[in-house]
Design goal:
With 469 residues, the protein is α+β, with helices and mostly antiparallel strands. Helices cover 40% and strands 19% of the residues. The chain contains 19 helices and 17 strands. The protein has helices spanning 5-25, 46-50, 54-57, 79-87, 98-110, 158-169, 185-193, 206-212, 237-242, 244-263, 265-276, 280-287, 301-316, 326-329, 333-341, 346-350, 392-404, 444-454, 461-464, and strands spanning 27-34, 68-75, 93-97, 115-124, 131-135, 150-153, 179-182, 199-202, 216-221, 229-236, 376-380, 387-389, 409-415, 422-424, 429-432, 438-441, 458-459. Helix 4 runs parallel beside helix 5 (98-110) and helix 5 (98-110) packs across helix 13. It starts with a helix and ends in a 5-residue tail after the last helix.
Amino acid sequence: MKLNNLTKSLILGSALCSVFSSVHANNIRVAIGTQDTTINCATGGLLIRELNLLPKHLPKTGKYQNAKYDIVWKNFTSGAPLTSEMVAGRLDIGAMADFPAVNNNVAFKKTGKESIFLTVLSGSTTGSGNGIVVPLGSKVSSIQELKGKTISVPFASTAHGLLLRAVAAQGWDPKKDVKIIAQAPEVAGPALKSNKIDAHADFVPFSELFSYQGFARKIYDGAQAKTPTFHGALANKSYAQQYPEIIQAYLRATIEADQLIRKEPEKYSELIAAKTGIPAEVVYLFHGPLGLQTRDLTWKPEYRQATQTAVDTLKYLGRDDVDINVNQFIDDQYIKKAFQSAGLNYAQQLQSYAQSPLSANDALTQKPIQNFERVTQIWVKGETKVRSYATPENAFTDLKNLQKSGKTIRVVYNQDRNLKIKLLANLAWYATDKTGQINAFLLRGDANNWAKANGGKVYDFNNVQKLVK
């Protein structure tokens, strides 16, 4: 059968349109919003991006056989602007804390769409990570002394939720008994330096960063509130339903990033520091063994409760015009499948509450460290690995030796005997018992109580070192 020129043109045009449509359909965007300076989001953003982990996990078979991926990264300093980009359809996945995540879901619902909470990235079932600091020269040593004071906080952040709960726990009216003002971390830092505010509440890592930088002192840790907190990853629900394999690929990359930093925390703390400007010493405080928070990708009951607490806090603020069902918002099917494809046991990890483990010999005695209540660590400049010690006594003895030999000390860490969190040793308080055993504490009040109960004395960092030979 002979075809006239018109018929040939129509067939050719139809074929070309079909090819163009196929190619167009196979260009798939994967747009991810990160919070680089919120360093406990690193395994869901910065590390995946910098180590180029996502491409190796993206699907390449079946309907994705001819797919061309357009991977887009965009960094934010907080959750609110990230949410705006997600709701506007410019991002598909994002990382943020529990409280901003609930705001994210509210914002989606108001436009007739939905977001889903995919996984936890890092958190604390006891609340550590959020904190309140005061200027270094302030006489305030506890939250009880902040009545009538001006406290700044990034509004709509997880730290905002903590502050409101901490104020309520004192029996105070947040509108009358304290003055709460909105300040982002980059504004709060200079305000603390110039004593323009009495205190500042913030999320990871700013309480520790400001303390490490030497112009603030932490007087309240979220662990005191015993209210779980975490950062996690969300996705546009319709995107996840259209591309479930891509969501699982992202989560596989997250799992790989978690495994890498667990294996070499110093190395990747340095990488995060190079990309964010957050000192590696502060990054290691969170991501190193026995860190302030635990990287945990499973939906523990405490993290589900933290999400519900965030919903309740919104109601407390009078912003309950949208109904949120936490059990529908949290969608764990994707992380469970990612665990399975990575050969990991989700159910087993769900039952584990262990901190990132420390497996080390005491750097002074060379004996294996088996008890972690009084672990002390020293990071020496020029050394790629942090030195660990079973006790402050051993660490302070070696610290003197290191200093005598001309070594420069980057940082010293302790474990808080009560709160079970890692501390910057130079800002900790120390209490002895009647045998002379040294224990570290974040709060001077806790050190005082320990010393009184155990027949000992209280010391600061400089004076406690004089107790060892």
